[in-house]
Specification:
There is one protein chain. The protein has 721 residues and is an alpha/beta fold. Among the domains are: 152 residues, TIM Barrel (Alpha-Beta Barrel), CATH 3.20.20; 176 residues, Rossmann fold (3-Layer(aba) Sandwich), CATH 3.40.50.1700; 41 residues, no CATH class; 116 residues, Immunoglobulin-like (Sandwich). A six-stranded mixed sheet has the order 11-16-15-14-12-13, sandwiched between helices. The chain has a five-stranded parallel sheet with strand order 4-3-2-1-10. Strands 18-26-25-20-21 form a five-stranded mixed sheet. Strand 5, helix 8 and strand 6 form a beta-alpha-beta unit. Helix 7 packs parallel to helix 8. The model has no long low-confidence stretch (mean pLDDT 96). The structure holds alpha-D-glucopyranose. The site of alpha-D-glucopyranose (GLC) has 6 residues, from loops.
Length: 721
């Protein structure tokens, strides 16, 4: 159905236009009805299809213009069926997992009346102190961009006006993940070059993929709060990239311009934000009061800008099919997870776990005496952050799931400690029970309440109580397998080498316990990879694999470590002393980007390129690379083969390597497969500054790696043809 937007716009008063540019953050039912009768254009989801239809009916049938509502909600990793958190999904290195979550979420949510999700969060970040790393795809712009595109495809489907599509929302524009000190909402200051290369890239990919909306970020960037950043909201997003969708402010982000100190009052904040390119204001003062009086006048705010914003909103509603079909079928609306969707959520969860270490303790034996301990033994807290109250709950604990999965094991279960508390008696009991067991499964981690928004942590270790239990069991000589549930990379340095295996399970959603149990038993082989570096200490942060060389790259570190300090005699003139390192840490992170083990082993060989000397035009046509992967072990397993590019000499400093391709393969014992990559000129380009993206001739090194084995080949790009 084509709507005559221009004639509708021509009929609208100033007040009616402003009302289309606002969504009130979680109003009460009474407030919502009053706002809709006043003519507001958007609302948060009233938590049922019936209430949504009632809201739409007021908007469509009981207001002068009859314009249907955008109905928004944070459907971040599930509506009723909850999938693994986005960071866990990134660990799968499989865009199909991200797209599946978005597809199921859109189907469940749209059927219930939601038509706009404030997802995906596509903020790249290198700082695990920031609680919101859980909502994004980690530290790498390439992986994050691939998953952004998958999410947009999953949410928006083949067209927005079908009954199972949601308008996606790329957030938070931009560089929110670069908050200084990893402290949420904090200042960000990023060079134009890094802004382009690292932080804008995922948004560009999402806009290119057709994302319908973008959300402005809370942070100030280089002195300009994003809600008033015209150069980026309009200059880059709308003009340079041609984004024709809707920019929504974050919750009270417009009003908070006053706190940033760039405007004197909320009236000026509204003017600054809408003028900069915000189209819908979320929360904050009302743009039109209960008496129908507009908060700002046409003398204060460019009418042409307001008309542009209203057009964008009306076009989105038209694309969503809301003018034609504003109502949903409440009798068939989803209200809870179905068995089928739970099965899909479990399959997704099984692809997200990462085997960090394993001395052979995993997979678990099928018989024998095993003690299960730790706060996650019985906790149901697996859904993760950003889950709405109506989501279907986890229905079994890890203890239940393990008893089902390994029925011939003689299980014992003790808490040993809580998430944040440990008594001498509880720890002693766990140690005593461990003495009678062949092995201990110790289920520990971050509860979801300390993950997500406003959850930055200065100390990213496990809580002391849990570390106390780990050390007590290790001191007693127990054989320990750690199951680590977490919203972020943690510092595990003090215990990781004292236990026999560690499986990182993030927060895996509705079917987490079953997925974890099936992985521990070996029915499923863990195949995930770390999408964000695990530092050795919070003092290493920010730390990421695609760092630049510096003028003094180190080869050794750790002179002050217990095992080396005796020999440390102070600064010396060896050629490795005055280099970029920490005296009190070994070099590098605990687990690098891409790290992950399996229950089998793999070999890479036969790395070949179609050409090793190319002209610029040949590079534009693409270079083909292949490598053979073989399962050299005795169990089926997944390997993730990644392709990295290194520009050996360039006009500006370059990362030591950049991810430019990845493929996850499942191989039977002895099976081989050839993985193919296509390297295009765009994979070799980089931003020389904030304005110029360049392709420079010279030598490049291509590395294929499954983070256990690596092979390299050189490619020379000749002068441009
Ligand atoms: C929050 C978040 C944003 C979310 C919005 C609406 O503060 O920053 O990600 O979409 O409010 O709930």
């Amino acid at each position: 159905m084509t709507v005559d937007i221009e004639s509708l716009l021509a009929r609208m008063t100033w007040e009616q236009k402003l009302l289309q540019l606002q969504i009130v953050w979680r109003p009460s039912a009474a407030e919502r009805e009053a706002l809709i009768r006043r003519g507001i254009g958007s609302t948060f989801w009233p938590p049922s299809a019936g209430e949504t239809n009632a809201a739409q009916r007021i908007a469509v049938e009981e207001t002068e213009l009859g314009i249907p509502l955008l109905v928004g909600l944070d459907v971040i990793h599930g509506q009723f069926t909850i999938f693994p958190t986005p960071l866990a999904q990134a660990a799968a290195f499989d865009p199909a997992v991200a797209e599946l979550d978005a597809r199921v979420s859109a189907t469940e949510a749209r059927s219930a009346g939601v038509n706009w999700t404030f997802s995906p969060m596509v903020d790249v970040t290198r700082d695990p102190r920031w609680g919101r790393v859980v909502e994004g795809f980690g530290e790498d712009p390439y992986l994050s961009s691939v998953l952004t595109v998958a999410k947009v495809a999953g949410y928006q489907g083949r067209a927005l006006d079908t009954g199972d599509a949601l308008a996606a929302c790329l957030k938070h524009f931009v560089a929110y993940g670069a908050a200084e000190a990893g402290r949420d909402y904090n200042t960000t200051d990023v060079s134009d070059r890094r802004l382009r290369e690292t932080y804008l890239e995922t948004f560009r990919a999402g806009v290119e993929a057709g994302a319908a909306t973008v959300m402005a970020a809370f942070n100030a960037l280089n002195g300009i709060p994003m809600h008033a950043n015209r150069a980026l909201l309009t200059g880059v997003l709308k003009e340079e990239w041609g984004f024709d969708g809707v920019v929504v402010g974050d919750a009270d982000g417009v009003a908070q311009l006053v706190n940033h100190g760039v405007v004197a009052d909320e009236r000026a904040a509204v003017v600054a934000a809408i003028d900069a390119g915000v189209d819908i204001v979320m929360g904050g003062s009302l743009l039109v009061d209960a008496d129908g009086v507009a908060f700002v006048s046409p003398d204060e705010l460019r009418v042409a800008r307001v008309d542009d914003a209203v057009r964008r909103v009306l076009r989105l509603k038209e694309r969503l099919g809301l003018f034609e079909r504003p109502y949903v079928n409440a009798s068939t609306a989803s209200t809870s997870a179905t068995e089928r969707y739970r099965e899909l959520a479990r399959q997704a969860a099984e692809r997200c776990t990462v085997l960090l270490t394993n001395d052979g303790a995993l997979p678990l034996p099928q018989t024998g005496r095993v003690l299960l301990a730790g706060p996650y033994a019985r906790s149901l807290d697996h859904l993760g952050t950003w889950v709405q109250h109506f989501a279907s709950p986890v229905t079994e604990s890890l203890a239940d799931a393990l008893a089902t999965e390994l029925p011939h094991v003689d299980w014992e279960v003790v808490d040993g400690c809580g998430f944040f508390d440990a008594t001498d008696a509880a720890v002693a009991e766990a140690v005593e029970r461990a003495a009678g067991a062949d092995l201990v499964v110790l289920a520990v981690g971050e509860p979801s309440r300390i993950s997500g928004e406003a959850s930055s942590r200065a100390d990213i270790t496990l809580p002391d109580a849990q570390r106390r239990l780990i050390h007590a069991l290790a001191d007693a000589g127990a054989r320990v397998v750690v199951v680590l549930a977490t919203g972020r990379p943690l510092v595990v340095e003090d215990w990781i080498e004292r236990v026999d295996a560690t499986l990182c399970v993030w927060h895996l959603g509705s079917e987490a316990p079953a997925a974890i149990a099936r992985t521990l038993s070996g029915r499923v082989s863990p195949g995930g990879r770390v999408p964000m570096t695990f530092p050795r200490a919070v003092g290493q942060v920010p730390i990421h694999y695609d760092h630049e060389r510096t003028g003094r790259p180190p080869r050794t570190g750790g002179a002050l470590l217990p095992e080396t300090i005796a020999g440390f005699t102070g600064p010396n003139n060896t050629d490795d002393y005055y280099t970029s390192k920490f005296l009190d840490l070994p070099l590098g992170p605990r687990f690098d980007f891409g790290h992950g083990l399996a229950y089998t082993t793999f070999a890479l060989d036969g790395f070949e390129m179609s050409r090793t000397v190319v002209s610029a035009s040949e590079a534009e046509a693409g270079i083909d690379a292949t490598v053979r992967v073989t399962n050299t072990g005795d169990r089926t397993g997944d390997d993730v083969v990644m392709l990295f590019v290194t520009d050996e000499v360039a006009s500006v400093t370059q990362p030591v390597r950049r991810l430019r391709g990845f493929t996850r393969v499942t191989l039977q014992p002895g099976e081989s497969v050839t993985v193919a990559f296509r390297i295009e000129a765009d994979h070799l380009r980089f931003w020389a500054d904030g304005q110029h993206r360049v392709l420079e001739p010279g030598d490049f090194t291509l590395t294929v790696s499954d983070c256990t084995t690596e092979h390299r080949l050189g490619v020379r790009l000749e002068e441009a043809a």
